[in-house]
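Students often ask why we bother encoding 3D structure as a string. The short answer is that it lets us treat folding as translation between two languages. Here is a chain of 678 residues written in the first language.
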Amino acid sequence: MKKWVVSALLVCMATGTLLSGVATPVLGAVTTSETKQNSQHFKPAQQPIHEKIGFNNVQVVGVDANGWNWVKNDEFILPPGTPLDIDLVQTTYGNGANLSRYEILLDNVAMPTLTGEKRAEEAVLRWEVPRISIPESQLPAGVHTLTFVMSDVKGQKSTVHVRFQVAARSTDFSVFEGEKAEGEAIPSDGVMGIFALHGTKIFTSTVTGTWTLYNVEKDTKKEMKSFSGKTYKAGPIMEGQYEVVFTPEEVNLPSWTTTIHVGSVDLYQGRDANGQKLTPNQKITAPAAPSQIQLYSLFPGRWWVNGTGQTLTDSQYFDVVVPDTFAGMALTVTFEPISSKSSPGTSRSEVASVQIQIPGTPNACGPTEPKVTLDLLTQKNKGSSLIAEKENLYSSNSTVTVYQKPIHVFWLSTAADHFLQGSEVPSDEGPGVWAVNNAIVENSKLNWDHTALDLSTFKPERYKINYYSKRDPKQTWCGYVQVIEDNAPARSGLVCDQMESGVAPPSKPISLKTKGGSKYSNEEKIMIESSMDLDEWQKVTLLASYVERTGTKKIKQDGRNYYMPKVEWSYGEIGFGSRQAPNGAQMTSENRVEVLYDGKLIYSLKPSLREDEDNGLSDLNIKKIISGNDAKPGEYTIRVTNTLGYTSCQILSTNRSYNKQTDFVESDELLTLTIDVQ
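And here it is in the second language, the structure alphabet:
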């Protein structure tokens, strides 16, 4: 299992860094109270960020410890007859030239006077925008939404929506939901929901007047009934769109209006209901990754995204941050409207979901460098114990098959000991984001700290599983698990364990790099016309695949723990005549070099036979070798053989028996380069 350096983890926790490079906060809108202290989220690096927004010296937008914006919707109430003063602080990132631009929309209408930009030759541009003011004449009583859109020099945008209320003058009246004039008044021109097949709304006004109920279809509305008094019961009303208008008897008082939506929750792609209406669980494709997708609901509520940790409460708008970390995967965005006092009816789900397909190709499940291992735990029934059935599973395109009848409990975990014993035992790769069949799974299918996936919540079939470590998204696992609801067949008694299995090497070409940085690959020919041309060949380096030791891994076998070298295939500069064969590892690499003149060997170098590790020569002086041959004209051939090996194990079955076959597989990578000296 992967062991992590404590100091690196502390740096990540202190700075909020999650992806490689300099990670900076981005829009996501998480309320601080809902963010767990130890939660970690995926955030694109160097995105523009609204650092602070204030209304009349009251902060309504800020940034939490994880780099997501928090928003205080419906908390700010502007007194009547008062202008709205806005304080805005925003930060953008550039490379040399930098740009910070803002645009403000009032109730989704652009305001040309509320735009501005600043340019600077700074990598980080933090702009405290001079105070902006919206006059009271543009802010009638009721609920309003201000949308803040900022962009940088790369065209990247960050959007925040803030909903607030302008209080009515004291000479006006108020309308409340319910049979008494108490609680929070309902602003005019709002939208209310009854999430059922039918339902009822009750309203009470502080003054007497006439209530009128309209059925709204498309752009027309038809009066259904009218009633005079202070309290009005609208309903029962069936699925559809309705409008309630209250007209006070006092002619100097304005009318009050609200819209009632009866039925399921609808989501729209865009800034308002004029955008594309999305069907339940509809899948839409993001234009690019990273990017943002705007979603809208008629009602305020809570939004969240499986996998990224992005959450927003009490909002009609949601700008989904689409990361490139999960290329080829589908994110699920869920919306839950704020509950209202609708009367009982035939219940409809008050949750709406939409899937966002991220462009790109998912991680392959073929044999790769062993970076992450997972354990499979099972429990046959309530009376049995949870045990680790399979351990140290590497990424593979092979299928891991498990049997159980009936299906009871299956968990796929980053560390069996951590799952069984809790926080007292390290979780190795740590909390992760999990995907099944290229779709990010919801938190309810994970354990308490997201280090394990509950496979028993899925139907018995074959699944593709992906895991992404939240500590380092580059640490991933991919494989296939087949769950079969049946008794396990008779076992052969033979098993290939981790000490008998290595990983096949990647296929990458060998090349030689000269002192000036030129690279040459197999079967190339170079003409040398003067001794000065040979100066380039005084310091030649070798680029090839090799085995790199990255640490120590723990293997559990027969109830005992074994510690072995942790190795992986790497590619880069390596010594001529070097060998990498850590004691106990299942992968080895070595190379030898030969220089021939007109087919006759004049120089050779190979690893020592007595050493498991031989660094060889960091570079080779080809000019010196040619000069040692009196610089005779003719063809000099440089031949490099890179030998890569790994252990393989497989269980072979016949009609009557099983046999375990182990072998050490070697393959040679060749490079032949000809230098023609004139």
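Translate back mentally: Confidence is low (pLDDT under 50) at residues 1-44, 341-348. Keep this in mind for the problem set.
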